[in-house]
Amino acid sequence: MPGPLHGVLVADFSRVLAGPYATMLLADLGADVVKVESPHGDDTRHWRPPLRGDVSTYYLAVNRNKRSVVLDLTDPDDLVLAHGLADRADVLIQNFRPGALRRFGLDHDTATARNARLVYASISGFGAAGGADLPGYDLMAQAAAGLMSLTGAADGPPVKAGVAVLDVIAGLHAALGILAALRHRESTGRGQHVTVDLLSSALSGLVNHASAHVAGGVVPHRMGNAHPSIVPYEPLPTADGELVVIAANDGQFRTLCRVLGVPELATDPRFRGNADRTAHRDELRPLLVAALSRRGSARWFGELRAAGVPCSPINSVAEGVALAEGLGLDPVVTVGGVPGIRHPIGLSDSPPSYDLPPPGLDAHGPELRAWLAGD
């Protein structure tokens, strides 16, 4: 069954993570994504190890369901083909530094003057105004936005997130913006410029922490694994390890206390309501730890899960994938012998499809160049 984006042609001039992640999501939903690469190839082809065979697993993570063509924009003949692709495309996405594509005639104004229906998506690190000169690396944005100031032990240094989370958020925002612009085009016949930057995506992704500052006048700070507004909401030690334990409302806290064998804590005036528990977190935590110390994490996980208390063991990535498999989520799909993580969105009538493995450099070059040349 054709995907919901069947017939949408995406000219993908992006590299590394945010753009390729966005276009892979679109490709899984049926869009025809043409990945335009320089002769050097996408940078992530060279970010190794880890490897599958001799291919970077970083590259494999975000490039399935695409066709690759090498076009050297400094070569006049290749540039003509690049213009032809932009002229035919429904969507063009790029993450060059703001203004860098102007000299090639592939900037928004020039491309849309030739193709008024084009949805043109630009991803940058810090926008096209005052931050146009700043490269768009995830770690820079984590530092600049304040995310690192919130990550790590309370008495330790700032720490980056373990994954390039802002690239992923920006990629999601880009895909959402593209879909909105395509919907708008249905009624107007015209494309528009979709702009996404890592810093804005970061501030949006900081959600309650950003709101604490702009709405509450508070500057959030590192709290380790604790939560500023919910207690308990953190890993707690058990007899043989740690278990994430959450009581996001008073009912969950009462159930937690009952299962742990300390029901009196739920009626203690210091802990009766969430605001009380937040104010007295330093008094509550050792009492919960003492109760949890009587059994191991696996035993508590089973009992708390059965009672409806949110909790989880702290898994490795391998254990996380195994858990998803055990829960029937089928997290892994294999395309052309290359395993990857399944598209996260389920659609009952037009589900994602997996037709092409991540392409080798210029794997579809001859056919795409012939098509663009009109042969």
From TrEMBL:
<dbReference type="InterPro" id="IPR050483">
    <property type="entry name" value="CoA-transferase_III_domain"/>
</dbReference>
<dbReference type="InterPro" id="IPR023606">
    <property type="entry name" value="CoA-Trfase_III_dom_1_sf"/>
</dbReference>
<dbReference type="InterPro" id="IPR003673">
    <property type="entry name" value="CoA-Trfase_fam_III"/>
</dbReference>
<protein>
    <submittedName>
        <fullName>Crotonobetainyl-CoA:carnitine CoA-transferase CaiB</fullName>
    </submittedName>
</protein>
<dbReference type="InterPro" id="IPR044855">
    <property type="entry name" value="CoA-Trfase_III_dom3_sf"/>
</dbReference>
<dbReference type="Pfam" id="PF02515">
    <property type="entry name" value="CoA_transf_3"/>
</dbReference>
<dbReference type="GO" id="GO:0008410">
    <property type="term" value="F:CoA-transferase activity"/>
</dbReference>
<keyword id="KW-0808">Transferase</keyword>
